[in-house]
Amino acid sequence: MKEIFERVSIRKYEDRPVEEEKIRQILKAAMAAPSAGNQQPWEFYVIRDREKIRQLAEVTPYSKSAAGAPVVIVPCYRTSGLWAPMYDTIDLSIATENMLLEITSLGLGAVWMGIAPIEERVQSVDSILGLGEDLHSFALVPVGYPAESRPQQDRFQEERIHWIG
Predict the structure, then answer these.
(1) 91 inside domain
(2) Domain assignment present for 99
(3) Helix axes 20-31, 88-105, angle to 10 degrees
(4) 51-93, pLDDT tens digit by residue?
């Protein structure tokens, strides 16, 4: 899949909205992710409200660029009713990566801004979104049409591969 080798973190966006059909396709890709025991602990908040985006951009020292995005997707995870809760954030990581790859395939740009497992960040985002006690924010994913471009770094390192047998 070429998107694996094309995806880069984008932090600057054109001043134009992202079409709802593209957002739905991104979320469909996220929900196609495998999850432990098929527990699918995810829920997704799609934020287009400028004031909410501004608030989210202030949660961490690294999330300021989210303020310029036309949409921020917040993957969240449930903590109740799961038979394998120790895998909830792993499941969300896979779903978030699926989102990033689909975003790239649609000609959009995004960046994964970590929220979990830093409790103060989780509580801040949960409060901004009014999440209940059984649902928690995992990440911020600002999405938009890229206003910057650069090639992906080649991170392949042969010395990190160990063949046995």
Answers:
(1) yes
(2) yes
(3) 140
(4) 999 999 999 999 999 999 999 999 999 999 999 999 999 999 9
Distance CA(136)–CA(116), nearest Å, equals 9
Confidence of residue 1 (pLDDT cuts 50, 70, 90): confident
Q: Is the pTM of this model over 0.90?
A: yes
Q: Is residue 162 assigned to a domain?
A: no
Both tokens of residue 37? 């025991």
Asked whether 2 and 148 are in contact (CB, 8 A), the reply is no
Query: Domain residues for 137?
Result: 7-148
Q: How many domains does the chain have?
A: 1
Give the residue from 11, 35, 15, 160 showing the smallest Cα distance to 97: 35
Position 11: which residue type? R
Nearest to 42 by CA among 100, 109, 106, 87: 87
The count of C-alpha atoms lying within 13 angstroms of the C-alpha of 38, restricted to the half-sphere facing its C-beta, is 0
66: domain CATH number is 3.40.109.10
